[in-house]
Structure formats: structure tokens, C-alpha cells
Input
Amino acid sequence: MRIVNINKVVTGQLLGKSLFNSKGKLLLAAGYELTNDILDSLKSLGYNAIFIMDELSEDIVPEEVIEDSIRQILSQKVAETFEGIKNNPAFEAFAPENIKQILNSDPSFKNVVQMQSVRQQVDMLLDEIISNHVMMFSSLPVKSENGKEYQHALDTSILAILIAQKFNYTKRELRFLGTAGLLHDIGKLPFKNLAEKEWEVLTAEEKFILREHPSYSMMILRGSEVNTFVEQTAVLQHHEHLDGSGYPQRLKGVNTPPRPSKTPEAGVIYRFAEILAVANEYDRLISGFVDGKKYSPSEAISKMIGKVGNWWNSHALKALTQVVQHYPVGCCVRIRMTSSHKYAGYSGIVSESNEDEQNKPVIVLYEDSVGGRITPRKYDLSREKLVHLEMIL
Ligand SMILES: [Fe+2]
Output
């Protein structure tokens, strides 16, 4: 199967991979013959790409990072947790000028998060990652617009765990990070639709709220379970940058491997937060949360590399490049350049990723440089010294 832009899918093509709604319910099963009506509904649900199955791609099977069934259950649970926070009556009278004071002192803001359920979600995720030896994150551009905040929470949690595994975090420490990943943005939930707006159109008050959301997330979490120091600190600092240009506290960081530390150093970004920051930014870029553009995995990584050492811990970012598929299996790419000058301008479908060199996958070439169909042939790009690919969607 391969990933195709929804606008390029034609009637009669077969759906390659089942689609589920944001709450984990089956929308459309794999194998379904797509009609114009169905394609229109998928567009209205915000899908920009889907998997289709055709002769060209029948042998290509994307690797599952997290079992579909587990992912659906988790999506449903995360959605329930988030809806519970959003619809909590305590937030109805939430006035921007006294948020922190209210969160600190008003007893109606206690236990807003069902922590027992969150712990179960994180344990389910961790068991899946550890028992299946999951090392890779396959971020495919098939996220629907609906419920993207739940998906972002879940994917940030998965990514943070995968990055932390590279630094030998214990299961207990991974559990802290997984929980912080799920809850890092809950401080935005009481302000419905605020996160959806472009930064330029926000009022000064709304900008203030957005820049303070890590503090609100931390306070909501603290009000739900006092004994969550590691998670609270990671959540509070998930938008801090090494050079002090982040928010809300403008902390600075040290660019050394983010190995777990029990107590944060005063005035310095906590090691757990450095990992969470990298995971969060990557998923924000591919989800279209940063500037409205949904970056491809390789574009997101390139963009983050531009700020490595200034914003992002270079060790955490290197680990990110090792745990995400730069060109996920099933996506179409065009060869811009290779060191051997072979197949320049040709298009192909990624059929396997190369674990050691994520930017050089194995592809099945199907189109020449002028758009003519060719007999499909496999080409292992790891044979090339230099490769420059462009993802086509
Ligand atoms: Fe955030």
C-alpha cells in the first residue's frame, strides 16, 4: 500500500489501511472501494492523505509501531481524559486575569485529571513499546484534523519514550515521561479553540495565555496528584529553549546528553523536559501546529537541525533522528540527487527503511524523470554516498 494525497485518489481505488475517528471508532475498513461521496466525507473530516492499495504497492507493508487495536483503545482513553478536562464545570468561570490564583486555591480545580486512568494509559503504552521492542516511530501524514490534540498528546508521549530509551531511562522514568507527554498541553484545554488560531490573529491577552499554558498544565496536574514532581517539572518546561529564548520561565539548558536526573538544577532546564521539548516540537511540526504547514518527517527534522544547540539539546535531537522514519514506508518520494547521478528525477515508493541510515531508504521506482511509467524496480539508496529526496504528497 502507499500514501496518496486525498485530492489525487480516484474513485474505485481501494483503501489500504482502516481509518478510525479521533475517539478510536472504526470509520472505514481496509479494502473498501472509494467513491466520490466517501472521499468528500474524508476531506471534510480533515484527512489530507490516506493509504491506498494498488498493484504497484501491493507488496509494500508499512511497519506498525503501536498495534492498531492498542492505538485505538489509547486514542479513545486520551479523548475521554481530555473531554473530561475541557467540560469540567469549574472552567466555565475561568477568567484570564486570575487563572493562577484560582488554580492554586479554588478546591473545585482539584482532581480535574483522572490520574488513575492516565496511569493505566501510560502503562498500556509502555507495555506495548517494551514488549514489542519498539524502537521506531512511523509518523505518517494521515492524521485527521478532528481530535488532533489527542493524537498529538499520544504521539508526543510515544516519541518522548522512544528518545528516552536511547539514554537508558528506567521503566519508572519512562512512565514519568509518558505521563508528561500525554498531559503537557492540558493547560490549553479550558480555552476552547485558542490553540487553533494563528498566532498573528491572537489578542495580547490570548498570546499571554498561550505562553503561560505550560504553567497551567503543571498546576492542573498538581491539583490532581500532588506527588508528580518529575511530570510537573517536565510539563512546565516543555517550551523552554537551551539559549533561554523559550517560555514561560526563559530557563537555559546545558547541551550534554539528557540522562535522567532526580532533582533539577536551579535555573536550568530539567533533563526530562529537554526530551519532551524535542518530541513535542517534532510532532507539532508534522501536525501543522507551528505555522499551519504539515511538515514531512524529513522537513521537520531539517527545520529542527537549524536550531540544534540553540533551542534543542543536540543529543536529544540526534536520538529523535534515530527513532523516526525520515521517509516512512509507503510514502512516495522523488530523487532530487544521488552521488552516482543515477535515477535523478525518478519517483518511487519507500518499501523499507534502513535502520542505520534513515535518510536512505529502499524504494520501488515507478516513474522516470519526465513522468513516464517504468517497470517497477527496487533501488537501495544506502548504496549511495549522498542522497537528496523529496517527499511527494
Ligand atoms: Fe505546549
The pocket of fe (ii) ion is lined by residues 184-185, 213, 238-239 (CB under 6 Å).
